[in-house]
Amino acid sequence: MPNTNPPLVARKRFVAVGCGGRLGSFSHRLVTRYRDQAELLALCDTSQVRLDEHNRQLQELGYPELPTYKAEDFERMLDECKPDACLITSVDATHDEYICRCMERGIEAVTEKPMTVTAEKCERILESVAHHHGKIRVLFNYRFINWMTKVKELIVSGLIGDIKSVNVEYLLDTSHGADYFRRWHSDMKQSGGLLVHKSTHHFDLVNWWIDAIPEEVFAHGSLFFLRPEKRGSQRRRIEHALCPI
For the domain with range 12-139, which CATH number is right: 3.40.1010.10, 3.40.50.720, 3.10.20.30, 3.40.630.30? Predict the structure, then answer.
């Protein structure tokens, strides 16, 4: 009798670098919902505390404790684990380093948005991808919020006709917005600023909704509030808005 069992498909092998809060958005589903299709092999971070905490979260989900590597041992992790892909959820300014190291080893890079924070680093990544014929994916979780996806569905269906113009306005409130000025995101060198780190979502949404990429871009801005000399008073205002006396 012929063997009618379906062929076994090898699970895709992942490692992860950057064990902050965002990694859980991907790793928790990878070790539960997609456990039959993928496996997580190891974790890498600058902080052993974060490594241990993320291991604890995975163990609560029924996953075995993973080996951990410090950031300076990232390449050793790749060499020892031999992954198919690497999840990159580290500080934005470090993405290019990890992406290019993956490209050199023929490992797929799956990076959290933004891909990087400067034009120079972007060029470096694109050159590395082209030179090594590598593969990189940039993750945009905002696409999967229900109403964002619904907008895409309505446009694709043709229900609202051809799109001739799009206007997007986004205002950060004192709860979500203030978070960005309490941690590393407030450092332009690390995050590229809100226009890169946060607005990346909105530029991507418009491009995705209408399936188009801008041919010309113009920007105008001014620094009238978030100035260095006002940082102390700004922080007090934000804290008062969140926790009024």
Answer: 3.40.50.720
